[in-house]
Amino acid sequence: MFCMWIPRRSSFLIALALLFAAPAQAASLTVLAPASATAGLQPLAAQYTASTGLAVTVGGGSRAKVVDALKTGPADVVVLPTNDMADLPNVTGMTPLGRITVGVAVKAGAKVPDISTPEKFVKVLLAAKGVAYADPSAGTSAGKVIDQLLQAAEFKGVKRVPVQGLAVTALANGTADIALQMLPELATDKDVALAGPVPSAYGAGVDFSAAIASVTNDATQAGAFVSYLADPKNGPVWQKNGLEPLFH
Questions:
Q1: 3-class DSSP state for residue 145?
Q2: Which residues are paired to 60 by β-bridges?
Q3: Is residue 84 within a helix (H) or strand (E), and if so which, with residue range?
Q4: What residues form DSSP beta bridges with 133?
Q5: 176-194 pLDDT, tens digit each
Q6: pLDDT averaged over the chain?
Q7: Which residues contact residue 178 at a Cβ distance below 8 angstroms, ignoring those fewer than 6 apart?
Q8: 237 FRET partner, CA 20 to 30 A, in 140, 152, 210, 231?
């Protein structure tokens, strides 16, 4: 005799509860970062999407915009200077990535100075009518690093031009003829000519890390992407785009 099995009501309710209790898989990931880090993030996000099928969107903008977005979202992963990250209460799982060097640029069309040695670099800055950099009072890590650099005795006499925002804006309005800014930002700016990085003897750079945003809808997927960013096999991509990785 044929009998049809009918699940007990309690079993049905348990199954239904488990279905709704299971965390929803993210349809995509939103990664927030300042412009200095997006050069490396964009190709890595594309590679990750190609290998996993999970769409990854990279955005953010200024440091202030990134910090604001972390409060309300959408945000899953954030890449920021390590010192900034350490002060944020709404990120977890901070993972060091590497260092981005400060670069030197002039307005497009101007003669590109030779800064290949510390001595030549100092000479160029002393001769400039103005050296622009992010105002450290705005809280940016780059601004603080550059301001500290310019406090060295050999830079006494440099005409400093602190800027609210990007240093290159001072090249455009003529208040400075040298800009000190994160190297990847300068490398992608068609309105400036890149002279190169600040000589390594000065150690002018900013350490960056990645972390999971507290407002993420899928911490597991976000954590997997953070691990991907710190995978040694991706070191060459970071290097090509201005970040010297800490992992090998």
A1: helix
A2: 33
A3: helix 82-86
A4: 162
A5: 999 999 999 999 999 999 9
A6: 90
A7: 104, 105, 106, 113, 124, 125, 128, 130, 131, 132
A8: 140
| Calpha distance 219→210 (Å, rounded) | 13
Strand spans (E) along the chain:
28-33, 55-60, 77-81, 91-107, 131-134, 160-163, 178-182, 192-197, 205-213, 243-245
| Separation of alpha carbons 134 and 89, rounded Å | 25
CA–CA separation, 236 and 232 (whole Å): 8
Asked, as a colleague might, if the bond just before 74 is cis with ω within 30 of 0, I would say yes
Q: Which tokens in the block code for residue 18? A: 């488990």
Q: What tokens appear for 173 in the block?
A: 């309005």
Distance of alpha carbon 242 from alpha carbon 107, whole angstroms: 20
**Residue position matching structure tokens 């400039």:** 128
Q: Provide the 3-class DSSP secondary structure of residue 83.
A: helix
Q: Which two three-digit tokens encode residue 83?
A: 């010192």
Q: Quick one: average pLDDT of 211-226?
A: 97
Crossing angle for the helix pair 35-52 and 219-229, nearest 10 degrees?
Answer: 110
Closest CA to 200 of 97, 86, 104: 104
DSSP string, 34-73: -HHHHHHHHHHHHHHHHHH--EEEEEE-SHHHHHHHHHHS
**Percentage of the residues of the chain whose pLDDT score is greater than 90:** 79
Give yes or no for residue 144 having a pLDDT over 60: yes
CA-CA distance, 153 to 124, in Å (whole number)?
Answer: 15
Measured between its terminal Cα atoms, the distance across the chain in Å is 68
61 Rama sector, left if φ>0, alpha if ψ -120 to 50, beta otherwise: left
**Looking at residue 189, what DSSP letter applies?**
-
pLDDT digits (tens, 9 = 90+) for 17-53: 433 444 445 589 999 999 999 999 999 999 999 999 9
